[in-house]
Design goal:
Maltoporin, Chain A, mainly beta, single chain, tonb box, Plug_dom_sf, 5 domains, 22-stranded antiparallel β-barrel
Length: 997
């Protein structure tokens, strides 16, 4: 058996046996073994290592483009000028190096089997004024044969070729293995809070909910590059179990550039979309002059990049703006220590997003670079796509259709996100690089009604307003009076210090570092309908806590280039101090859930440092890539990943006691969630422009928090009891741009199952009238489970000045881009039931009708007064396929009155509105009664004509009243299921204009 086959055999032996993996994983692995075993037998390869130096000074030239002439194999020189080209087939080659400001150089090299050839390339500086402009373009190979993880890198140029909405999350959701469900991002079957966005080193996570918000905070046009890691991220990344989105923001250069764009649907649709974006970048001469004495050899100018954008829209659903009202935000922001509120200018529509960014960088010398970035995002909306962490059921359609006629009395939700980042990159010596960064992240969310305090809410309900006899609600289902009762306010502030080191030694690339983070978390929530200003000023149902946890990590990772094998081995240690408040809770033991036994369990599960309790976890990571040839490789990764639970599950009601029925109590002794994952994949580049990748993955997740009802107590406590498993296979076929076109397609088959999709599953059972003590023994599918997902894109691009292709005899003009994107996937998951509502299968084991969407953007550039003018038209859901967002579990289709579960009760059938009162009563089976105690019958003798006449009159009145009540019930059903949010948005077209300079 060859070495390759032995490695794959070991991987197979480590995989747990189950039927799904036999049918897919083993078939794939055995096919790969049969192919690779034969290939490995004849493949003869060597390695080329070397350095690129300045021919005059001997200084290393970092980031030089190095390639083997006549092949697609290449590399970028490290900070010390060194490079490694592994897996090079035996033969004679020329290695070429090119760097801006230097003439390119070539060096011949002879590659021998299982040997390492060492070379040195010296480049001559060009003489100013004697050479033409040199433009060097570097491209990643479609298949990186040294990569042992699933990483998809998207550059700013790639983003231009995508049909995207304004923000980064639109780029992320188009990648294989990524699913968007209820406006949340799920990576490879994981929960939405298991993906971490890192933007210029800032970890952008709402610690209370666990959700990472960087995707909606950052403008896609401001991103220089984003790496989307969905499998096998190494030890430098932590506190995430499903995916990492690592984005780098653009920097300015020594030439001024700008962009001003405006997109609207005023001429095409009625969503009231106004999207404006302004960007400017370039040098900062005054600051550059001031800092010049502090710079060293090779110092550059101080540069900046700035971006401001506004995304205002009403969308396709009724909003407060389209119904004649307006938002009112009472959120208090600060600027230079002064408090202020935002006025109507910032929220003219139902959804209003403002984003600002400023970044400055300075290369102080050839060995030092400093950068600083500031970001700010404000969102004012009604929270239609938002689910609060305190919401018990989060698998719901959050559009408030019942309030749609009075949205002026609904919530205003204000979300503030801002960040700061300072980074210092330094090359301490040729083989040692250090990066020091200080970051700050702040996010806040405020929710109230019309800017009011909870004591000012109107808590009158329709039930109070309409009496049950003779005063029938004229708008059944819709709410005609009062205001919703929730008042919520929270914020999270973090400061972090990161120190990252990289050392190159022989064939090793070693990385180690530390991360330390201080956290300030405050949460407040109450129900205004339970407030008594004198006795219960915060109401009967409230929560309020303020905590100061501390977290951090240490990690080490070593990437080793063996002959014919690239291995990366890492170890990460994460620690978590829950905070002094938690330590005090267990010392006092004065809470219902903090008993002596619970305190002892806490002390057993934690360690002590300087008198403070903490928890720590080790996570090993392994990645292996075996280059089969210069264009193909087999890779495998295995790792343990941990993530702290959402802080709401830890600290809820830790410092407050409300008298609500069955409250959810946080558990300060929760352990981090743990995921054990492995992946096996193969990549092959057929030609210079086409490649295929296939991977199989498995994720086992343990210690999910879930709320359980305590014995002899009417409360729920979060415990680490749930688990889940996600498995899948991904196919990706890609063609990069040649001859005007580029395209790609991905297909994913995945299954995600577990004990529960949400930590509040048992609480939901209790609120639905069940017994939360009866724990389900069977696993269920996750509510975001969509087994089949196909994505494809196709682009046609004609560069400015090129002669375009001819289509049907018509030659396309230059400076033209046509970008299309297609998504086809399984419909929304649901639990099958019969018409009486009894489950007939596992939870979420069925999927509704397939979802599909086709989007397209056409962009044409024109030169006007020496500037590039850009005209565009964007179409979303061009086929106008109305995907169902809510499913009737008995039919598997969208809800329709009179069908499925709405066909059993006559009060749900709209056809019955046409019946006479008598026929309607007969259909519903209602019994019309006349009370013998009715005062109108007093003094009348039964059986007499006078008695009969009054009796019949009362009977007819009661019949008519009952019929009106039944008709109101039917109309209420019609109104409820006419909710336009039960189907996805229709076709939508926008036009745009922009100018670049």
């Amino acid at each position: 058996m060859t070495t390759t086959a032995m490695r794959v055999h070991a991987a197979v032996a480590s995989i747990r046996s189950n039927s799904w993996r036999r049918s897919f994983g083993l078939l794939f692995i055995l096919t790969a073994v049969s192919f690779l075993s034969g290939t490995a037998a004849w493949a003869q390869e060597g390695t080329v290592v070397g350095k690129v130096l300045d021919a005059e000074t001997g200084s290393p030239l970092a980031y030089t483009n190095v390639s083997i002439v006549g092949t697609t194999r290449g590399a970028i020189a490290r900070e010390d000028g060194s490079f490694v080209l592994a897996g090079v087939p035996v033969g004679s080659y020329e290695v070429q190096a090119s760097f801006m400001g230097y003439t390119s150089g070539k060096v011949p090299v002879e590659v021998q089997d299982k040997r390492t050839a060492t070379i040195e390339i010296k480049l001559q500086p060009t003489t100013v004024g004697k050479t033409d402009e040199v433009v060097i373009t570097g491209e990643r190979p479609l298949v990186d044969v040294e990569q042992g993880a699933t990483i998809r890198s998207v550059t700013a140029d790639d983003i231009k070729e995508l049909v995207v909405r304004p923000t980064l999350d639109s780029v992320v959701e188009q990648q294989a293995g990524v699913t968007r469900d209820r406006d949340k991002i799920h990576v490879r079957g994981g929960r939405s809070d298991e993906t971490l966005y890192v933007v210029d080193g800032v970890k952008m996570r709402d610690l209370l909910s666990g959700e990472s918000s960087g995707g909606s905070t950052v403008s896609a046009r401001s991103v220089a590059e984003v790496n989307i890691i969905t499998g096998g991220f190494d030890a430098q990344y932590g506190d995430a179990m499903s995916g990492i989105v690592d984005a780098k923001l653009k920097e300015g250069d020594e030439v001024y550039h700008g962009f001003l764009g405006y997109t609207t649907d005023q001429f095409t649709d009625d969503w009231d979309v106004d999207l404006t974006e302004f960007q400017l970048s370039g040098p900062v001469p005054l600051v550059s002059q001031m800092l010049k004495p502090l710079g060293g050899k090779g110092a550059g100018k101080v540069t900046f990049f700035a971006s401001v954008s506004a995304d205002l829209s009403n969308g396709h659903l009724p909003t407060v703006d389209t119904t004649g009202g307006s938002l009112i935000s009472s959120y208090q922001d600060r600027l230079f220590g002064n408090q202020f509120t935002y006025k109507n200018f910032f929220y003219p529509r139902g959804s209003n997003e403002w984003r600002g960014l400023f970044k400055s960088a300075w290369k102080a010398s050839a060995h030092h670079k400093f950068s600083i970035s500031l970001m700010k995002s404000m969102q004012f909306s009604e929270g239609f796509n938002d689910t609060d962490i305190a919401q018990i059921n989060r698998n719901v359609n959050n559009y408030p259709w019942a309030w749609s006629r009075r949205l002026n009395n609904y919530y205003t939700v204000t979300t503030d996100r801002n960040s700061f980042s300072f980074a210092w990159n330094q090359t301490l010596k040729e083989s040692l690089v250090h990066e020091l960064s200080v970051t700050r992240f702040f996010t806040a969310r405020h929710q109230d009604v019309r800017g009011q305090l909870w004591t000012e809410y109107s808590t009158l309900t329709d039930g109070d307003y309409y009496d049950s006899v003779g005063n029938i609600d004229p708008n059944p289902y819709f709410l005609d009076v009062g205001q919703p009762s929730a008042y919520r306010d929270r914020y999270i502030r973090t400061w972090a210090l990161d120190s990252k080191w990289t050392h190159f030694w022989k064939t090793h690339e070693m990385r180690w570092g530390l991360h330390s983070q201080y956290e300030d978390v405050q949460y407040m929530s109450l129900d205004a309908s339970t407030v008594d200003p004198d006795l219960l000023p915060l109401g009967r149902e409230f929560d309020l806590f303020h905590v100061y946890p501390n977290t951090g990590a240490l990690y080490f990772n070593d990437k080793i280039n063996f002959e014919g094998l690239v291995a990366s081995v890492g170890l990460r240690y994460d620690y978590w101090f829950p905070g002094e408040q938690v330590d005090t809770l267990y010392e006092r033991q004065d809470r219902p859930t903090i008993t002596a036994a619970a305190a002892q369990e806490y002390y057993d599960n934690t360690n002590s440092l300087f008198g403070y309790r903490y928890k720590g976890y080790l996570s090993p990571r392994i990645q292996v890539s075996h280059p089969i040839s210069e264009n193909s490789h087999l890779y495998f990764n295995y790792g343990h990943f941990t993530q702290r639970p959402a802080y709401f599950y830890v600290y809820a009601k830790s410092s407050s006691q409300s008298s609500e029925d069955f409250p959810n109590i946080g558990n300060p002794n929760l352990d981090p969630e743990i995921s054990v994952q492995y992946e096996l994949g193969v990549g092959h580049q057929f030609t210079d422009d086409k490649a295929i990748k296939v991977s199989v993955y498995n994720k086992d997740i343990y210690d999910y928090p879930t709320s359980i009802k305590l014995e002899n107590a009417n409360l729920f406590l979060y415990r680490n009891l749930d688990y889940a498993r996600a498995r899948g296979i991904e196919f990706e076929l890609k063609k990069k741009r040649t001859d005007f076109t580029s395209w790609g397609a991905t297909y994913t088959f995945s299954v995600a199952k577990g004990k529960a999709s949400d930590p509040n599953g048992l609480r939901l059972v209790q609120e639905s009238g069940g017994d939360a003590r009866e724990t389900a023994l069977e696993e269920e599918y996750m509510w975001w489970n969509r087994p089949h997902e196909f994505k494809a894109y196709a682009n046609l691009s004609v560069v400015d000045g090129d002669e375009g292709p001819s289509i049907l005899g018509v030659r396309l003009p230059d400076d033209l881009r046509i970008n299309t994107y297609l998504l086809v996937r399984s419909g929304r998951a649901y639990t099958p039931e019969d018409k009486q509502g009894r489950p007939t299968g596992l939870g979420y084991s069925k999927n509704g009708p397939f979802d599909s969407t086709l989007n397209m953007t056409i962009t044409k550039g024109l030169e006007v007064a020496g500037r590039r003018l850009e005209l565009s038209i964007q179409g979303w859901n061009l086929l106008n396929h109305r995907n169902a967002t809510v499913i009737d579990p008995s039919t598997g289709e969208r809800w329709k009155p009179g069908e499925g579960q709405l066909s059993i009760d006559p009060r749900d059938n709209p056809d019955n509105l046409e019946l006479t009162d008598e026929a309607l009563i007969e259909v519903t089976g209602d019994e019309i009664r006349v009370s013998s105690q009715d005062p109108r019958l007093a003094g009348l003798t039964p059986g007499t004509p006078e008695y009969r006449e009054v009796f019949d009159q009362i009977y007819e009145e009661n019949l008519a009243s009952t019929a009106r009540s039944i008709r109101a019930s039917i109309q209420g059903t019609i109104n409820r299921y006419s909710d336009p949010s039960m189907i996805a948005a229709p076709r939508h077209v926008r036009v745009g204009i922009g100018m670049e300079w």
